[in-house]
Amino acid sequence: MFRWGRALPLSLRSFQMRRISSDPLLDQLITCNNQFQIFQLVGIHKSKLSVQHVGCAINTLWEIQKEKPSTSLNFEALRNHPEFIALRILAENKIEFMSNSTLVDTLYAVIRFNVEPHDSLVQQLLVEGWRRVERFESETLSKFSVCLDKIDLGTSPLMGKVANALSTNLDNIHNIRILSSLMMKTFPVTSAKLQQRLIQRAESLLENIDHVDVHSVRRIVQFLFFMKYDYQPLLDKCNHVFVRDIKKMSTDTMCIVTGLYRQMSFKQFEFLVLAKSALLEISDLWINAEHFGKIFCALFPMASQETRNRLEDDLVILADKIHHISLVYILETMAEADCKNPILIQKICSAIQENLDCYQRLYLCKITDALMCLPCQNYQLFADLQKRLTSYMKTCFVPSIVVMMTRSLSLLTLTKVDDVVLTKIDSVVPQCDLSDLNSIANSVIRWLQPVKVSRQNKSVVYEKLLQKVSRHGLERIRNMDNIDKLLNELTYMMTGQWLQDMLIADILHTCQRLQHQVTWRNAPFLSLVISYCNGLCPPVLDRIAEVSMENVTKIHPTDLNRVLYAFANLNYDPPREEEFFNMCIQHILSNLNSFPPHLMVLVAFTLAVAQYFPEDLIKSIFNVGFLTKLDSELDTFPTDRSAKIRIRLMQLNRAVCLECPNIKYLDASNKRSIYHQIHIFLGDLLGGINYSKMFVTTPYYYTVDFECILNQNKKPIAYMDENKLSSNVAEVQWGLDGQLWDSKSLPQGSQRVAIEFLNPVAFCRNSSKIKGLNAMKKRHLEILGYYVVQIPSFEWNSMELGTKDSWINYLRKKIFTNEL
């Protein structure tokens, strides 16, 4: 019963076809619901099978197989079945009579059955596909590209013909699923011009289609990732689909998108926050080793410490059950998130070591790079990795792979570097681009370190190799005639000693030589390069400013931060400086919704460095709603990245307070309202407003919320008149509010009192225990000679202190009751 129930949809489909089909055998093949029925029909009617019958039989076989769970698939038994062998022979004999769709469907099914690429049937199908590829419909072309990718022909001339057919018929493709698939598969062989056309076509289809499936959008984002091109308008459209349909997304897709965003540094906090919440809700899948690896990689870098601890504990238990490839990505995630759990690190390293023979070159390099970022002391694993990489290096002839393994060997080399390895590196240098040359140079510099040189005594060999790399690098830069190509090669090499020592001057000179090629598309990244080079290049900066002003509305608002940062960082004013900044600011203010919270902070800080303080932007940042969003977003960031954004926010706040005191925002209207209240009550308690001060900076640059001075009898001492200056400048201490005090003017026996108002973030969430940073500040203030009074916000805002008298009595008890 269940068997026929499963076959019902196929039966209904065949019933609809019977009205137009006069071929009973074809109808029977379509209605088969297991491979044995198909093989039985093939065996009985072998001599009568037409090209339609053969194509239908192979296709139906695949449709049946793909519905089975992966654990029950046995392609080897299927391939060895006599009737399947007969089908293959019949298909090979009838290839020239197949329609285009049947040809590609047959090729696809045969490949999915794991028939070897060198099999004669596969080869004949490919040859016929080569002849017809320019006549394929878009859907057939897409499926053909998938076939080529699956048999490692993704960079072959045949895939080039597919890309050419795609270019010819691009405007006739109206299906985003087909387009996204072709974008992904043909990427390795597409030109920069075709890539731009594909992006424009994808953007157009996303604008004009109401319903788009997330898998197609995910492939578009992957295409941009492979291009190393963060084209913001298209990414924004893709992100909108992800946010809208996040509840429909599978766990796998959610994890893939989260990983892509992280690798692309595309910070769209709304999706990341939603993805984080969704992944936390499916914690029942964490016990499944198959899913756990993907969830760990997506969630661990943006999880709270409590969640991280739980993930680490679960990973220790499941490590032995996780696939060996997934272990590599888990190790990379641990390195990225700065995992310090020694038990977990040792467990993952042991599991990887047990499977070391299963890893190819790429994964050995990934393992090495990750291990160098973790506190791992498994020297046997290091030695095994070095041995395998050295062996692979001797037989490798692909420059990019040689470079990749060179970098990994330089990170873990424990003993002598093999002469064959050095010879191999020397041989690929002329074939390398700037990024690869940079990697080789930094690897050689590591080998030149004194400790290693003394052990290997090969410094002359390394120096000659470094000189050769430098010579080729300089020649490549000086001969560059396309600024986009230069920027593309510089994308992943803007760090390292070799770049700083050897190439900066020539990079700036080449940028100046090619400045006529600067456009609004490449201006943002060129600005970033100029800023990283840390050298003034006025002609190029002037050209960037000119192009940006002419095309400011074409540049994505978030990319303008890169442009502005170059001018602010290098403190350079273009010829029409005020007009340039005002146009950029206006475009930014008109599109604030395009900015994730952290980027709004960064662009405001960049403008502050350049002495521009747009009031609307400042007020948008310093309000409770925005800062709540910022906190949520930073919770998804790595710790060091989050800390940098918070520092920028603090620096922005300081700049606004000092340079634009007339701008009233959160600091004045919300937070300072409580501080102002406390300051007034302190004046009532101590005898006047001049007996206390707000926001005083101490030696070592701590900021004290309130300060007062008590003599030896616990009587308050008034501060000196603000208009009276100390005669000795060296004895003056300054506060943030401009007040000052003379460090030698205190009467003997007097005591400085620091009064600190503690916000909720100063305490643990589930207790009234003060967190370590605030405890350390109290300790340091006491060392500096203060008596410290701490006012917890939950006490100050409690129901017991609802009147002025109760607040003043509370302050009296805090300051005078305790023994100074």
TrEMBL record:
Domain RAP: 753-813
Pfam families reported for this sequence: FAST_1, FAST_2, RAP
Database matches in InterPro entries: FAST_2, FAST_kinase, FAST_Leu-rich, RAP
PROSITE patterns: RAP
UniProt KW Mitochondrion keyword: yes
Primary location: mitochondrion
Protein name, UniProt field: RAP domain-containing protein
Upper classification of the organism: Eukaryota, Metazoa, Chordata, Craniata, Vertebrata
